[in-house]
Amino acid sequence: MSSNWITPSTRTELIEDLVSGVDRYNPSNVGILEDYLYHQIRSEEYDCLANLAILKLYQFNPDLYNPDVVINILIKSLTASPLPDFNLCISLLDERATNVNLDEPDPLPSLLPVLKGLHRLLYRCRFPAFWTTYRSNDLENLRDNYTVECIGFENSVREVVVRAVKAAFTQISTERLGSYLDINGIALETYVKTLGWTLNSSTGVIGIPPNPDNQIEATVVQEAITLPQLTRVISHAALKV
């Protein structure tokens, strides 16, 4: 997983040269990286390091700042939870960009707290609260102007849910999983089948196959202490009495 994060299989040779070489600090390449971001949005691909390179260029060159690009980067990084991608992106934002003269009002200051709130809910596995907040009237602007353009955004959020559920459960009720995924009925049954999980229709219980994270195994720890070591410990304790 870490190797794919560092070098995604979908990254082109051109982007690899920009991300890995000294050209990542060349402001003339920002357009190429921004185009690559919009390719990620349209194709459900994701490349965190390439997106971080854009934010770094904005840091060094405030005149290049594009708030819509920043918002889209943050939206893409949301669905990488529980990886630290979102916080890495936030760490590269500073006050200089908000002082840049723009033709229109900057939407980032108002949307940034919203995105941070959504990230906290995902990171803490408060999935029903995430969907309630995300679908609220207050976030209509985010949905209508940004996430609607990010192909597969909601499915990517559901993949975050699946990762968490696989790590914590061996069985889960359809009602509970449905609230986590924000789907129910036939759509939920179909989704469960695509995951390879089993559904007992009579009990409404979904079985999750064993994996290293959801199996409880007893661990026996044996300490090998030699007599000379024990003698030194006792002697040291005696001196302090």
From TrEMBL:
Write down the PROSITE patterns for this protein, in alphabetical order. PCI
Q: Which residues cross the membrane?
A: none
Could you name the Gene Ontology cellular component terms for this entry? Answer: eukaryotic 43S preinitiation complex; eukaryotic 48S preinitiation complex; eukaryotic translation initiation factor 3 complex
**SUPFAM superfamilies, alphabetized:** ARM repeat, Winged helix' DNA-binding domain
Residues in domain PCI?
46-223
- Identify the keywords attached in UniProt to this record, alphabetized: Cytoplasm, Initiation factor, Protein biosynthesis
Cell compartments where the protein resides: Cytoplasm
Give an example GO biological process.
Answer: formation of cytoplasmic translation initiation complex
Top-rank taxon? Eukaryota
The UniProt family comment states:
Belongs to the eIF-3 subunit K family.
Instruction: Summarize the subunit comment.
Output: Component of the eukaryotic translation initiation factor 3 (eIF-3) complex.
Give a short account of what the protein does. Component of the eukaryotic translation initiation factor 3 (eIF-3) complex, which is involved in protein synthesis of a specialized repertoire of mRNAs and, together with other initiation factors, stimulates binding of mRNA and methionyl-tRNAi to the 40S ribosome. The eIF-3 complex specifically targets and initiates translation of a subset of mRNAs involved in cell proliferation.
Name listed for the protein in its UniProt record = Eukaryotic translation initiation factor 3 subunit K
Give the organism, scientific name.
Collybia nuda
Give the taxonomic lineage as stored in the record.
Eukaryota, Fungi, Dikarya, Basidiomycota, Agaricomycotina
